[in-house]
Amino acid sequence: MKRDSVQFKIWTGVFGVAIGLLIVLLFVNIGVVVQRGSDIPWDTQIDHYTVSGYAQEENLYTNTVGDANIQLPPLNQYVDNIAIYFSSPLKQGLNITVYYAEDTHGYGEEFTFSANASKGSQTITFLIGREITTCRIDIGSKTGEEFVLESIVLNDSRLSDVGIFKTVVRFLLVIFFIIILYVLTVVRPKIEKAFLLIMLPLGLFYLVTITPLSVPDEPHHYQSAYQLSNFLLFRGSYNAYGNAADFDYTNFVGHGNVGSGYLRVLEDITQPAVDGELIEIPLPRKLAYFIEYIPQALGISIARVFHQNFIILFLLGRFFNLLFYISCVYLAIKRIPRFKLLLGLISITPMALQQAASYSYDSFINGVAFILIASLLKAIYEKGPLTTKDFNYILIAGLLLAPTKIVYYPILFLFLLIPRERFKGKKDKWIKFGIVLASAFLIICIFQMPSLLSRSIQKLNWEGQQNYSLMYVFENPIETARIFWRTFWTDKKIWLYQGFGISLSGLSLHIPSWIIFSFIFIVCLSALSFEMSSYRLRTEIRASFLFVSFIIMLLIMLSMFTQHTSDTRTIIMGVQGRYFIPIFPLLFISLNNQVLVYRKHIENVLLLIAVFLQSVTVLTIINMTN
């Protein structure tokens, strides 16, 4: 015991010194950046450049050849950044590539910076950070693309803070990884506490590096949560109205992670709140099932009570949503009797954490689904009578989950796997099962029936066409089956990769595939048992997990078939991998077998690998955000 205490102190000292050195190095690096900044000619506007491949009418440029470009004059200087400003919002997204030359080389595909300027944006920035002789900028890559160019600025002084922000994030990631390495190898806490220590910092990294509004449909979720905060603050007849300043989305891009978003946050976060005009909250707003927006609305309400500005208000709403998700995952890992590591790893995949640290109600859906599955497994595997507490966990989680997305309702049928011995008798089991199903169905009717009835009215969809209908399914079952099979066969891999997070932001921020493949691999490993374990995954449980997952997959496809797919298409549109996150635990637990087993406990190794992969993912996010 004394020897262990001495080793603990030694390792604590070693890790403490390492973290201290990193902090010193961070400040030195920031000092170098600031010193270098004092020698840079800031805010140099390029007035003369050579245009090739564009039809030009004053400041309106139209791409006529595809491979059009703007050649800057000789620079021969250190370029910290290049900012491109457009006079009006872009009518279409533009692929923009900066080719740079240095003393040692000319232009080449390996010497480029690329980014996508999203539709509606008015600026895009590139952090160069090197001595270059000249550069060429390809704005757009297709004929017919248009933009109104305002200016090209070298070393935009406003972007110096973005460079410092990225430097700080990089160092904090390294410090975070070292701390987790220390915790897992020296402290060795219970697994639910380890995940708690991991999820909060990782979630905060996502919260600040994924720019506001860039997560799928985040503007709609924010506006819904904002309206709910009106109810929480008893706004009465003004429930549909809000401060115009709280809907100023300047420099933010829906479905796009942009450097201008970092700049807006850094510039405005310390500014006083603005009392703007009272306006109607922008549409659409979704409050049919308001419970899924309560965490976000609480954060917004607190910010409004203390009269905080829009940036703080927005980030606080995200933070409360993240806290709710972390609480759910902590509770789920604590309750689940087996596969704790598997459930935890699924909960910290890039996609799961991005959604948790945003305004999306996916945070609510995933968190509650994990609690429900954990509670069902606890009821299935534990011995003795089923306690009132355990039954209530299943009942309440089912009541909360069912109205969010009706497609997850079949998870409740796993209740039938609970051994009859845990009830007073067969009748008692069926009564409790009926209570769970009927209660969930009743709350679906209360919250979602008006919405379901409105969807039954045929309207033109996003393509200006009619969607497939349930009537089509009944009248053409064979052709429907072909479309479903064709969709599954075509998209099954991308659903899996998307579910883990190969495409973040609005599916526009592409994470290296090796990170996602590694995540999938360690989750598969976490499904295996230790060699000496007596646990066996019974055949009926595996079959039930797979069958319920299959039914939910069909329901997800059916919902997109009837709500998002034109009746002229041969593949179902709109199905995204994140919709399958709630059933990932069921699918991956099904991989458990007695052929592949651990010979040594490697739980901490897998967890450390996951933290490393997440750290690289966050680095990728900030490096790709220009």
Write the layout of secondary structure elements.
Blueprint: H1 2-38, E1 44-45, E2 50-52, E3 54-57, E4 60-63, E5 69-71, E6 77-86, E7 94-101, E8 112-117, E9 123-132, E10 134-139, E11 146-154, H2 160-187, H3 191-209, H4 218-232, E12 241-243, H5 259-268, E13 278-280, H6 294-305, H7 310-335, H8 340-347, H9 350-356, H10 362-381, H11 388-401, H12 426-455, H13 470-475, H14 477-500, E14 503-504, E15 509-510, H15 513-526, E16 529-530, H16 539-563, H17 584-589, E17 597-598, H18 603-624
Parallel strand pairs: 16-17
Antiparallel strand pairs: 1-11, 2-5, 3-4, 4-11, 5-10, 6-9, 6-11, 7-8, 7-10, 12-13, 14-15
Helix pairs in contact: 1-2, 2-3, 2-18, 3-7, 3-18, 4-6, 6-7, 7-8, 7-10, 8-15, 9-10, 10-11, 11-12, 15-18
Keywords: Membrane, Transmembrane, Transmembrane helix
Transmembrane segments: 12-34, 168-187, 194-215, 310-333, 363-381, 393-418, 430-449, 511-530, 542-559, 579-598, 605-624
Protein name: DUF2142 domain-containing protein
3D structure, described in words:
This is DUF2142 domain-containing protein. It comes from Anaerotruncus colihominis DSM 17241. Keywords: Membrane, Transmembrane, Transmembrane helix. InterPro entries: DUF2142_membrane. A hairpin with a 4-residue loop joins strand 14 (about 505) and strand 15 (about 510). The strands form 5 sheets. Strands 1, 3, 4, 6, 9 and 11 form a 6-stranded antiparallel beta sheet that branches. The model has no long low-confidence stretch (mean pLDDT about 90). Helix 2 runs antiparallel to helix 18 (about 605-625), helix 7 (about 310-335) runs antiparallel to helix 8 (about 340-345) and helix 15 (about 515-525) packs antiparallel against helix 18 (about 605-625). This protein has 3 domains: about 1-40; about 45-155, Sandwich (Jelly Rolls); about 165-455 and about 465-625, no CATH class. The protein is globular. The chain contains 18 helices and 17 strands. The protein is an alpha+beta fold.
